[in-house]
Amino acid sequence: MSFQLEEIDADVDYYRVRSCRTENIGEIFALKKLRKSDMLRQGQVEHVRFERNLLVEVDSQCIVKLFYSFQDSNFLYLIMEYLAGVDIMTLLMREDILSEDVARFYIAESILVIHSIH
């Protein structure tokens, strides 16, 4: 399967997320591209391995679905369900401090996610 890259949705230290479309049917996915050397340098290898394994094993409406994963010598690629918006890490980096109402919302969402996977 081949993908056509589109806009950048997130750009963090060791990874970048872009939307992409399948070339044959135009279905939209999120492509998370992780630079291996940066993951090693920043000590994120175990974190990324855990994330990938969790996405493979968990079938929950609260967790983004992983459809494909592959790698080359420089990058790890995760093809996931496309969801508009940003992840909590990006939100925190962008906003720095969340209002009490927004923090309460994300805490409640986090509790629901944890409950859904246990």
UniProtKB/TrEMBL annotation:
<dbReference type="InterPro" id="IPR000719">
    <property type="entry name" value="Prot_kinase_dom"/>
</dbReference>
<protein>
    <recommendedName>
        <fullName>non-specific serine/threonine protein kinase</fullName>
        <ecNumber>2.7.11.1</ecNumber>
    </recommendedName>
</protein>
<feature type="domain" description="Protein kinase">
    <location>
        <begin position="3"/>
        <end position="118"/>
    </location>
</feature>
<keyword id="KW-0067">ATP-binding</keyword>
<dbReference type="InterPro" id="IPR011009">
    <property type="entry name" value="Kinase-like_dom_sf"/>
</dbReference>
<keyword id="KW-0418">Kinase</keyword>
<keyword id="KW-0808">Transferase</keyword>
<keyword id="KW-0547">Nucleotide-binding</keyword>
<dbReference type="Pfam" id="PF00069">
    <property type="entry name" value="Pkinase"/>
</dbReference>
<dbReference type="GO" id="GO:0035556">
    <property type="term" value="P:intracellular signal transduction"/>
</dbReference>
<dbReference type="GO" id="GO:0004674">
    <property type="term" value="F:protein serine/threonine kinase activity"/>
</dbReference>
<keyword id="KW-0723">Serine/threonine-protein kinase</keyword>
<dbReference type="GO" id="GO:0005524">
    <property type="term" value="F:ATP binding"/>
</dbReference>
<dbReference type="InterPro" id="IPR050236">
    <property type="entry name" value="Ser_Thr_kinase_AGC"/>
</dbReference>
